[in-house]
Each structure stands twice: as structure tokens, then as C-alpha cells.
Amino acid sequence: MKYYDKLIFELSSPGRRGYTLPANDYPSECCLEKAVPKAMLRETPVDLPQVSEPDVVRHYTNLSQMNFGVDTGFYPLGSCTMKYNPKINEEIASMPAFAGIHPLQPLSTISGCKKVYEDLSRALSAITGMAAFTLNPFAGAHGELTGLMIMRQYHISRGDLGRRKVIVPDSAHGTNPASAAVCGLEVVVVKSKPDGRIDEEDLKPLLDETVAGIMMTNPNTLGLFETEIKEIAELVHACGGLLYYDGANMNPLIGVVRPGDMGFDIMHLNLHKSFSTPHGGGGPGSGPVGVVAHLVKYLPQPDFYVSGKQSDALEGSGKALFTDYTVPEKDSLGRVSGFQGNFGVLLKALCYILMLGKENVKAVGPLATLSANYIKESLKDSFELPIPSVCKHEFVFDGLKDKSTGVTTLDVAKRLLDYGFHAPTIYFPLLFHQAIMIEPTETESKETLDSFIDIMHRIAAEAVSDPEALKTAPHTTPVRRLDETAAARNPKLCF
To answer: pTM for this structure?
Structure first.
């Protein structure tokens, strides 16, 4: 309703009440003027809107429905892996025993929270093949930075100060070179072969005594498994470097193969991708970092979950869970966060793992792979598929197959919004000019996938019959097509 599209202040009418506060029970001698310094008191009443309860409820309900979220529709996002967040995760995390804790409570009062950290660390180690995890980083990019700091610290501790280069594939996510640069490392790009995988022959000349390591994700950003990963690992290790695994694409590997078994030394996980925790949206996130056995001592502090003897000795000591009570190893990074990770996010990830169990967690990777290949094969007649091989969790189209209409990938993405689907990742990776990266995850039903496939075919047909409808889309969203270039260069920051 247009009436409820107004600002809440525009709905205001003098005398209307949505809620009445109870009478002040404090005695008159405790009046506001006596309790609060005069200089801090308002001279005029608070200008709050005067609105009835139905108007308030309808106004904010309508506003909430203007947003698109994983609870309202399908996210075929690609690489960002916006999978459904089970509601039991939220219920557990909202329990007072968890939600009401304080990070500086004595350890003896929150043994359950301590067990959450220990159990999640062990579960992630078992799933990935790593020896230990730190749960301290607050986001995937934070995990990347922490992992690269571990890589750098490893070389520094050995006196190998000349290793300042990190090799990054040309198909890599932009955070990889960015994290390396922030860490003070030089980025060297290795090319991909026509089949989308790392070119070993281009890699070999790059490997020398200046290389700290290589950053990879497997499957790569094109959704293709790096079949020569064992050979790549041998080459990098032979020159003294380490292998860093970007866990952004861990989803199709869960229950199938482990990064540790492929030869990776360091890795981070995005819990919002592989383990169903909500996307942070700039807020709470989590990027745990795992390492092989000989790198454990470089993990950041505190590290009570790395060694049981450390945490066991603290029982009844009065020490707090999040204080630096362990004696830092001389090679440790020290702190990388104020406290020991985002507890609520970590708890939700553990709930997801326990809910699936040892048997069902093995189905995550195969189902994610099956869903992606089903969509790919269903749409390849309408959209250009530059690499036709079997993909893993995601794949990339290079725009529409029929390019004569002038309809671009951006137009397709905008038109999808009209049909109630979130747009996929577009114009990434940069290997393809009109890239459309699609990932359905393992949590979507066949009916949802079929509906998405049908709409994509319909959009491809519209591109021929009515290209202007796509070039001016979206037509049904609260905000229509924007001039994105003008918005970026000349933003209107006030009203």
C-alpha cells in the first residue's frame, strides 16, 4: 500500500498512541532534574512520531518485504554461497545460557561455551584434514590475512627473509591479492590454461627462493577442480614455499576430499558459506584458520583449544575464556582480534555440523555439485558455456548465446529481479567479458532449481522478442534501474 510507503514521521497524527508507558513508580525526590545534571537535560520534548499500533506494524512489515533475503527467495549467487540458514541454529544461539554470557566471565562458569570452541575446532580439523584451527578471525578476509601472516611468520622464524612473493592464479577472487598486499607481500600472477585450470608450465619459472607460497582455491573460481593439485603441491614445497587454501569454495569438497590431503599447509574457512551461518553484511562473521602440525605454534593467541593441557589447567582458576592466559609461543602471531572470535556465529556452525552428523555431512559436496551441473546442462543451449566440462559447486556462463540483440549480462541480472530471483554474481571472474557465475548450493529443492531454469530460458527468449524490456529492467522492484556509473562518481549523500 502506498500509504505505508511513507516515512514513519509522515504517518504521524497528534494524539495517536501505539503504546503507553507505565506510570513512573519512582518517588518524587528521585525526579529527573535531581538525577541528571541540568546541562544534559533536553529543553524541548523528543519529537517522536504519534502513530497507532496497526500503522506501525504495517509500516515496518511493508518495509521488511522490500528487502530480498535467503528467507524470501533463491540466491544463485556464485562463490558467495548464500545457502539457507536453518532456524534451529538461531534457536540454539538465542538460548540464555549462550546469549547471556560475557567474554570476561571466569572460565569455570562457562564450560559449555569452552566445549563449543573445542568441538568446533575438532570438527573443522576432521573435515579439512588440518591439525588445528584458530577461531579468532572475524571474517573470511580477516582469515585470509591471518593465514598469510602465519605464512610470513613461518619464513621469518627460519631466517628466510627473502621470501616476499605470493603466487595467485589469474582466476582468483580479488581478496587474495588484496590480503597479500596488506600483509606486505608481493603478488605474482600465474596464468590459467584454456580449460580454466592453472598452467603448470607458467608456474614452474615463478618458483624460486623468493616465493613464500601460493594462494589457491580448489575447485577454482570457475568451479573447476584443479586435477594437478598434487603435482602443484610438490613443485611449491620443493622450492620451500607453502600452499594456502582459500576456503571460499570448500562447499563441494565436504565429505569428498580434504585440503590437507591435497597438500595444503594453511587454510581459512568462510563459515557463512560452507556451514550455513548468516552472512555478516558488514557485521558478525567468522573466518577460522587451520594449519598443518608444524605450523600450529604460529597460530594467534589465545589458543586454549589447540592444546588440551592448557585449557584443562585453567579449570577453577578464575581466568576468563577470552583473556590471554596462555604463554605465547615465541613464534605466535599474538592477537589478531579483541576476543576469541564471534561466539554466536561459531555456535551456529557447530549446530549445523551436529545436525547433519558424520553421515549426512558427506552428502553436502555431492549434492552441491549435482545441483550446479543440473542447472548448467539445462541452460547451456541459451547461454554461452566457455568451458563445457563437469563443474563442481558453481559454473560460469559468458553471457547469452545469441549476442546479436545487444542484451548484456547486466540486463539479464536486472530482469531476474522482476521474476523474484536474486541475481547471480556477474562480471566475475574477469576471464570472461560477460561472466555470469551461478551456484545453487545443496540446500535448494529440484522444484526451485526448475523454476530458476524456466525463468532463465524465458529471459533468453525475451532478449530476442523484446530486448528493451531487459535493457530497462527491473520494472517491479522498489528501486528501478540506476545509472551506476553516475551513482559511483557523484553519490548523493544527503537528502
So the answer is: 0.87
